[in-house]
Fold:
Amino acid sequence: MCNTCGCDHDHQHDSSGTRVVDVNQSLLKTNEEAAARNKQLFDEKGILAINLISSPGSGKTTLLEKTIEALKDQVSMAVLEGDIETDLDAERIRAKGVPAVQLTTGGACHLESALVSAGFHNLEHQLDGRKLDVLFIENVGNLVCPSFFDLGEHRRVVLISVPEGHDKPLKYPKAIRTSQVMVITKADLIPHFDFSVEKMKTDALSLNPSLHIMVTSAKTGEGMEEWFDFLQRHRKE
Amino acid sequence: MRSSSSWTRKRTVHEVSIALAMVDELMRIAAENGAKKITKVSLKIGRLSGIVTDSLVFAFDAIKQEHPLLSSADISIHEIPLIYQCEDCMNRFEAREIHFPSCPACTSVNLKILSGEEQHIENVELEV
Structure:
């Protein structure tokens, strides 16, 4: 305890009325605390929460549409759709018969835990007591900021599409380092691009040796079974 | 990284997101301590954090003008190197690059990060 002012903090006083407070906390403490509360809530409800991050247009919504088509009868799913503006993506998900809440950030280039929490409560009203197995949180299209903001997810999945190029892992190391899964999308386009799956895998693993990498095409179905198996294996019992 | 063929523009965007979150934390710390003003903020930023420190300061200096409590706050940054410990030979070493890390003594890739992931507010100087 501080003897000068009697507060609980450890700090020094000087004669000019300034003092130094040792805080030693994360720059993103508020978000991290909210993320921990989200995760606890998902755990209590037996929900597997997945945070999908990628550049705009890598195919996050398309991957979700195909996932819903394939697993709708076996797995109870819902989606929180992050975008800067519009609810076009939430509409695409609802059209597949799965509850979706649009989270519009009004300019921010990433989701934060407080917004996810608000969206999840809204989603629960739509679910009306139905058990949820998997919650997908589709982040705003951006490979940088979302990698700084934990949302309370169990798995972070980064998507990189073939047209973006195999150099992306080294260019966006934080996205690769903080994810557990990397899904290479639009693999049907590989013959049309100078794209090396091996190079991309090697680079990604150099940043994150335990990264689970999948090569998929939502168009042809290539690799989609592996993604579906992954979801089935990790959903809570 | 700077060479004749590459030039790093030290004004990246994502530090604005970090600076905005930092402003919220500082406002909370100021309120908790009954501060009239924050005059100094010391940060620890690790090599692996992905934060470009010049950009963070640039973003913070722009944003702080909107907050009388923070408008005279100076930032000092303690940059933390990326230090690994080799789990095979226990050698400790600093890595300059963040990809392809391996132990310079025994070439093992079985490594533990000892420092470099920090993105912390160390302490804050307040006027009360």
About this structure: Chain A has one domain: 24-234. The CA atoms of residues 59 and 185 of chain A lie 7 Å apart. Chain A has a mean pLDDT of 92.
